[in-house]
Every structure is written in structure tokens, then in C-alpha cells.
Specification:
By secondary structure, the protein is an all-alpha fold. It has four helices and two strands. A hairpin with a 5-residue loop joins β1 and β2. This is Flagellar assembly protein FliX.
């Protein structure tokens, strides 16, 4: 069975009408005035279904917020490690600082867990301090 567009499946390519065990059959559809109304309602219901799915995707649960917050914190720690390695090797560059600043500017979701929020606050503070120290090293004010 081939699905085409938003109007639903097309008739089987074999030319025979589809039959089920109950005796119900789908004949070949012809262009009748009554066939346009179900197609229009099917298209409208498809749009409503897609809208409902998109609305559900926009709703973030507490586990998703926690996952995003932890991922952001881990990203900041990774950028801080990159910066540490660059400083130790004497190859500190602006790209490393830009990545750290960009990660720090990302929105941090609040999942309502005070322990996690306190830990993420400490990570944010450390990243801010390192960025300020780098500005002083570059001669900025």
C-alpha cells in the first residue's frame, strides 16, 4: 500500500479491491462529489494532529530539564578543562575563551533540585572567574 500526501493511502496497485475477513471491501474510488468532503476533513484532522504533537514536544518534563541542566554543566567543565590544558601548554587562544563564554551564555534550565542548582551555580561561578582572569591577562579592563 502506498501512502501519498495527507489524504491517506491509495488503492493497492494490483487492481483488485482490498477485502478483509469481515467482507468489507474498498472499491476503486471515482471522482464523486462526496469524495471531496472526507478528503478535506482528513486534511484538517491531520493538521490538528501535527499541531498537538508539536505542542507536546514543547512541554518539557522534570527529567528533561534535569538532563539539559547536567549536560550544560558537563559542557562547562569540558570547556574549563580545555582552557586549563591550553594554559599549561602555553597555547591559550581566543577560540577556547569564546567556546567557554558561549557555553556559559546558554540558558540553564531549572529543574527544582536545590543540590543540582547549587552545584551548577558553582560551575557557572568558576567559568565566570576564569573568563574574567583571561580578560585581565589580555589587558582588558
Amino acid at each position: 500500500m502506498k501512502v501519498t500526501g495527507t489524504t491517506g493511502p491509495s488503492a493497492p496497485a494490483g487492481g483488485k479491491a482490498a477485502r478483509s475477513a469481515s467482507g468489507f471491501s474498498l472499491g476503486q474510488t471515482s471522482a464523486t462529489p462526496g469524495a471531496a468532503a472526507p478528503a478535506a476533513s482528513a486534511a484538517a484532522s491531520t493538521v490538528a494532529d501535527v499541531s498537538a504533537l508539536m505542542a507536546l514536544q514543547g512541554v518539557e518534563g522534570p527529567l528533561e530539564k534535569r538532563r539539559r541542566a547536567v549536560k550544560r554543566g558537563a559542557g562547562l567543565l569540558d570547556r574549563l578543562d580545555e582552557m586549563k590544558l591550553a594554559l599549561l601548554s602555553g597555547e591559550a587562544d581566543d577560540a577556547t575563551l569564546d567556546r567557554l563564554a558561549r557555553t556559559l551564555r546558554e540558558e540553564r534550565p531549572d529543574d527544582g533540585n536545590p543540590e543540582l542548582n547549587a552545584l551548577l551555580d558553582q560551575i557557572d561561578l568558576r567559568a565566570s572567574v576564569e573568563l574574567a582572569k583571561a580578560e585581565l591577562r589580555r589587558g582588558g579592563v
